[in-house]
Amino acid sequence: MRHGLVLALVSAALLDASAVAAQSDAGASLTRGGEDSALVLGEITAVEKSLDGFKSAKVKITRVYAGSEKLKGTTFEQAVAEISSSAFGVLINTPKLEPGETGIWMMGVNGYDGEPIWDNLSRTKHDPDARRCVEWAETIERLAGLKSPERLKAARDLCGHRNPRVAELGVELLYAEANDAASREFLKALPANCEASRAALVRLDRLLIVRDGKDWVASDGRKAVLARFTTEAMTEEEGRAVARHLRLNGFQKRVTLTDVAPSLAALAANGKQPERVRVAAIDQLVSVSNDWTAHGSSVIFDPLVGLAKDEVAGVRRSAAAALAELSVPRGSPKFPNGSFTAPQVTVLRKLLAEENDPEVAKALRAAVDKSK
């Protein structure tokens, strides 16, 4: 088993996986069952140190949500990290695993030697989202007991679920059934479905960007998804998730700066959104600028200038701080002539002259001074 644990750690390091990604990728397959995967509730019975200096936790399976029922009552080992490291993904646990602790684990099979690999998805004691993860697991358990037609019908209902993980699961199940005409039509109409949750739309958008690339990005369907994201009022949690998603799509190498920045700018400018959602969109807009090294691009600079005039003080301050952050002086390796053009600096000077808020003025002055 020690050999299996070491391979598991190497595998996780190579994949740099996250618990959320693991759940998203595995949800649909877990509902269909099989001997090579499982989703379980476990309790740590002991944490031991071996002669070679590695620590591992013994985890007893107390419930099987998906997979072989023979697993119930059995025990597996989970590596315990002495020092946390994000490079090892979900197999390294911080805080350290302790006896008596419970959580949800997913099992896969190592492609090298067929040994099981256990990924910890949620820890009851430490994960603030533990209840949602349990509900997601229980939903998989229920769906696994249904025949395909009933499972797909249930999946359609899940797309409006209040739990983001469960709503995403609904989309994943329907997407996996590529040969089912009803599922394809349901997903095609999902952007216009007022019952669909933001989480379901985020999941659909990501799946179709990966599958169809620029064809989906340029489609009417995606325009409808973006309209839902940028014009409808959202909760703070929904808005943060949407803003993060819109920025992360840039890493798919299937979208451009002009595909990403305008949607984030529209979300930030929407006065119907909670202030924190708008600020989150501004933060992601700055990240997008860093991703593309596009500090002076009109699709970044112009929206931030507009937001620096917003009626909401928090939005104004965030936009001004963003302009200061993106202002890079001349002579820098990436911006030999500075990140902002002379006309853009003139715009900043005018903004500064008209600003009465000391915090906003301070940020704008920093933006101007760094541009000299």
Shape: globular
What is the end-to-end distance? 62 Å
Derived structural class: alpha+beta
Radius of gyration based on Cα positions: 24 Å
Main beta sheet strand tally, sense and closure = 5 strands, antiparallel
Please bin the fraction of helical residues. Answer: 40-55%
The order of strands across the largest sheet is 3-2-1-4-5
The oligomeric state of the chains shown is: single chain
User: How many beta-strand runs?
Assistant: 5
SSE order in H/E notation? HHEEEEEHHHHHHHHHHHHHH
Number of helices, counting only DSSP H or I runs of 4 residues or more:
16
Mean pLDDT score, rounded?
87
Low-confidence segments = 1-24, 84-91
Describe the model.
The chain has 372 residues and is α+β, with helices and mostly antiparallel strands. It contains 16 helices and 5 strands. The radius of gyration is 24 Å and the shape is globular. Mean pLDDT is 87; it is low at 1-24 and 84-91.
Give a short summary of the structure:
The protein is of the alpha+beta class and 372 residues long. It has helices at residues 2-15, 19-31, 130-144, 148-158, 164-176, 181-189, 198-212, 214-217, 220-231, 236-248, 257-269, 275-292, 298-307, 313-326, 342-354, 358-370; strands at residues 38-49, 55-66, 75-80, 102-109, 116-123. The chain has a five-stranded antiparallel beta sheet.
List keywords for this structure.
372 residues; disordered N terminus; alpha+beta
SSE order and pairing:
Blueprint: H1 2-15, H2 19-31, E1 38-49, E2 55-66, E3 75-80, E4 102-109, E5 116-123, H3 130-144, H4 148-158, H5 164-176, H6 181-189, H7 198-212, H8 214-217, H9 220-231, H10 236-248, H11 257-269, H12 275-292, H13 298-307, H14 313-326, H15 342-354, H16 358-370
Antiparallel strand pairs: 1-2, 1-4, 2-3, 4-5
